[in-house]
Amino acid sequence: KLRPKNKSMKENLMKSHYDKFRKWLLQLHAGFNVLLYGVGSKKKLVHWFASEWLTEGPILVINGYFPALCVKRVLDCITKQIMLAHTKVFNSMLEQVEYIRKFLPSWAPTVYVLVHNIDGPAIRSEDSQTVLAKLASIPQIRMVATIDHILAPVLWSADHIANFNWLAQHTPTFDMYSNELQYTSSVLGGEKEDRARGISYVLQSLTPNHHEILMVLGKEQTSASPQGIDFHSYLGMCQEGMLVSTEVDMRNHLNEMKDHHLVET
Predict the structure, then answer these.
(1) What is the tens place of the pLDDT at every residue in 76-122?
(2) CB 198 within 8 A of CB 67
(3) CA-CA distance, 61 to 259, in Å (whole number)?
(4) From CA 172, how far away is CA 183, in angstroms rounded?
(5) Helix H or strand E segment including 61
(6) Global pTM?
(7) 146: phi then psi, degrees, rounded to nearest 5
């Protein structure tokens, strides 16, 4: 394990960034979103800022470096846990964003979205960036994000930039990328190994109910139907085991598992 170098200098650098926290908060309240860039991991810095200054509303944390991250889960957190729209079904993520824009109350506390590595591989696609940009443009939502790739701004079109409405802050920390690098591929690893590791991370984050629903499908496929089963048969098995109560619940669970590439339909 590498020992941290120049510890006192890094601590002084972090303290100098602390002096900017009030300005960042004012920028967020003025309708901008804050983008941090510079050498070194900025995860500790973002959490320090959030814990001391973003105290008047809910906070959602997105780890963009996580290989199995799905933006859909972030939207679900807002619609289900904050807006309490548990039974609402959406045809696309953009439809879900527009629902949030339309029905998130103007009097509700600001929702703060912290994105560690918004340029991370799992959310680097144009679709993911479009969803995040539209989410950041909602007046009741403010975003604080970090980038580390030198070409990160190339990800964004003019529309993305307009929606993100960034105020960029140079915040080098020279801190080690311990969290960000824990999911990087081994030099000896291939695509299959990466996919297996990604699925393993997803399975660890699933609820027990998701596990049981997936187990039903796995047992059925291995014992009787390697080609899969039809939806209503699968629904009946899960209802029999008291894992879901309605077709809507079942479709919501399936959509989440599809987003994480655990099942195919």
Answers:
(1) 989 988 898 878 889 899 999 999 999 998 888 999 999 999 999 88
(2) yes
(3) 19
(4) 22
(5) strand 59-63
(6) 0.71
(7) -125, 150
